[in-house]
Amino acid sequence: MSISNITVYMPSVLTLIGIPGLESVQCWIGIPFCAIYLIAMIGNSLLLIIIKSERSLHEPMYIFLGMLGATDIALASTIMPKMLGIFWFNVPEIYFDSCLLQMWLIHTFQCIESGILMAMALDRYVAICYPLRHATIFTHQLVIQIGTMVVLRAAILVAPCLVLIKCRFQFYHTTVISHSYCEHMAIVKLAAANAQVNKIYGLFVAFTVAGFDLTFITLSYVQIFITVFRLPQKEARFKAFNTCIAHICVFLQLYLLAFFSFFTHRFGSHIPPYIHILFSSIYLLVPPFLNPLVYGAKTTQISIHVVKMFCS
Known about the structure:
Order of helices and strands: HEEHHEHHHEEHHHHH
Strand content: under 5%
Number of strands: 5
């Protein structure tokens, strides 16, 4: 039998089935997902408006927080409209090139978010450990340079994933993706050719970004906690510790869900598909939902301006 009889040559359209095994209840699953998306959009938009309008918030920590909000809006908007189209309107088809674009955007925004969290951790490290030198170290020029490097790193590292799929794979076993969005490994698994190069490069990108960022975040917070526990004032110690715990919770939920999704795709054949896809979707939607709530509630200056805005 020839290869053309058992495979599809360069499909123009792919089909996203949503959450395998839960197709009958996807319309109900879409309701909390949509609510999370709307709250994320409102929360992050409000955060951006406050940071932009208040000159007192034009400091490195709040600028990084604004970058994080903009990234969260972009990430959630890349995923949610198509996901709701599958859940509610039974529109599972997506053009192959559109699927690749969605894949590139999703993974690029994930890398950007990780880089911004690392930058925020470094900013907190300098602010708490070297408070007198913070203004001279974290200048606006440095903040712009860090933001540019974070975006360029993400775009450049993720782009070869797209190129490798487009150039190496011509024949596909199926055009049906067992996922609710276009993810790198979900697309690679469709290919009839040897995908070892794509898998190795995907591992390289994941461990390069997560390994680098997690190392700096961990080292920063170890130094922060050492400095905080040495503070003589109990109130100052509690305030710094309370702020750091909120940030660490954001880091943990992001990276734990990320590693769960990452390793399940490669080694979790015994895990039911619907659990994997649900966690993968939650992993992308919960950070944009939680970040403005956590950082907004834990940052006094932002919460004060939110109250002022609604009172006025």
